[in-house]
Specification:
This protein is of the alpha/beta class. The protein has 17 helices and five strands. It has helices at about 30-40, 45-55, 80-90, 100-110, 125-135, 145-155, 165-175, 180-195, 200, 210-220, 220-230, 245-255, 270-275, 280-285, 290-295, 300-325, 330-364, and strands at about 5-10, 15, 65, 75-80, 115-120. It has a five-stranded mixed beta sheet, with helices on one face. β3 and β4 (about 75-80) form a beta hairpin. α2 runs parallel beside α4 (about 100-110), α5 (about 125-135) packs antiparallel against α6 and α8 packs across α10 (about 210-220).
């Protein structure tokens, strides 16, 4: 990066970035042990320890750092926290917070334990953020969607309140589209709202447990936007957010306290997008019907009735064909078939009654 020279900085002067977008929100400002625990669990740090221990630290990838504010000494590592974790674990003699045996094996095998680390020193964090966007959002070491959103929120603070202009500027900075920037920022604003409203606690998950891309995918559908109260995909203010409807949507997508979520999988968003704008279909989801069943109501009650009868007929024909090959049929199966007869008879009576009433109405 032009204008900056590589310096050699002692390892004990280098500290984890408290605003690292890859870290869960709960670990911002956390102590080193908690950060190392996360890196060991999620970021393959042991493998990096082995590589550095065998080959030494590659000077061609200096850490990007900024001075910590007074009275604190040393530097925050804005880019390179995974490498910093590997270096700290190699240099330490203390037991690792997790995976202690693997870490100790990597230490014992290491022929290199660097203490003076190459780094590019910047005076302001903002000087590094644009580079991070290129490298981790559209570049060679792509972050997760949630990490991207956290990073974009930090970068967004550099611009004024004109969201459209800010999104375009951010898109130019990171080499992406303004619609993608807006979707990530709106998704993160909704995630923060869910956290603050206690929805994460209700479903017993943290923000890093969630598949954040499901949230950004869902809000890309116009019907879902209107249902939850978003004024388009760039509505980061959430001024007209409908709290009750958003809670429903959030739980349908993420609540796994049952066998699965109501949504099930991301390809069902297309169906959910139609369901939320049809009253009968929406009522079906709210009373516990699955997405496929509720979707049948989006063409109206009459079409739904006809679809249900066709599906039932196909299922009964399949059951008849299967019964020829089935063994071990008992009285409970016979009783079940009898209940189907009664259900079909009741439906027949109901439909015949409705037809008769319609005829009377027509003749009156």
């Amino acid at each position: 990066m032009p204008g900056n020279n590589v310096s050699s900085i002692a390892l004990d002067q280098l500290h984890f970035d408290p605003l690292n977008p890859r870290l869960p929100g709960s670990l911002h400002q956390a102590d080193d042990e908690k950060v190392l625990e996360y890196l060991l669990l999620e970021c393959n740090v042991v493998e990096l320890m082995q590589s550095i221990g065998e080959k030494g630290y590659f000077d061609g990838e200096p850490l990007l750092v900024v001075p910590r504010p007074a009275p604190e000494a040393g530097y925050w590592v804005v880019e390179g926290n995974r490498r910093l974790g590997a270096l700290k674990l190699l240099a330490s003699n203390d037991p690792a917070p997790i995976k202690p045996r693997e870490v100790e094996q990597a230490r014992a095998a290491a022929t290199h334990k660097p203490n003076d680390i190459p780094a590019l020193v910047f005076q302001r964090r903002e000087e590094i953020l644009g580079y991070l966007g290129y490298r981790h959002i559209t570049g060679i070491k792509e972050w997760s969607p949630l990490a991207k959103a956290r990073y974009l929120k930090q970068l967004r603070a550099q611009y004024d309140n004109d969201h459209v202009a800010a999104h375009k500027a951010l898109a130019r900075t990171i080499g992406s589209k303004s619609t993608n920037v807006a979707k990530l920022l709106v998704g993160y604003a909704l995630l923060e709202h869910a956290r603050d409203a206690g929805l994460l606690n209700e479903i017993k998950q943290s923000e890093d447990d969630l598949d954040f891309s499901l949230l950004t995918t869902g809000i890309g559908y116009e019907g879902i936007q209107k249902f939850v109260g978003l004024n388009g995909i760039a509505d980061v203010e959430l001024a007209d957010l409908k709290n009750d409807e958003f809670k429903e949507f959030f739980q349908w997508v993420f609540d796994r306290r049952g066998s699965s979520t109501v949504l099930g999988e991301s390809r069902k968003f297309k169906e959910l997008n139609r369901i939320v704008v049809h009253a009968e279909a929406l009522d079906a989801v709210r009373r516990g019907e699955d997405i496929d069943t509720a979707f049948l109501y989006t063409s109206g009650p009459l079409d739904a009735l006809r679809n249900f009868m066709m599906e039932a007929e196909k299922s009964l024909k399949a059951a008849q064909e299967t019964s020829i090959h089935a063994t071990g049929i008992d009285n409970s199966d016979v009783a079940h078939a009898h209940r189907l007869i009664r259900a079909a008879t009741n439906l027949h009576v109901s439909l015949k009654s409705s037809t008769a009433e319609d005829s009377l109405d027509a003749g009156s």
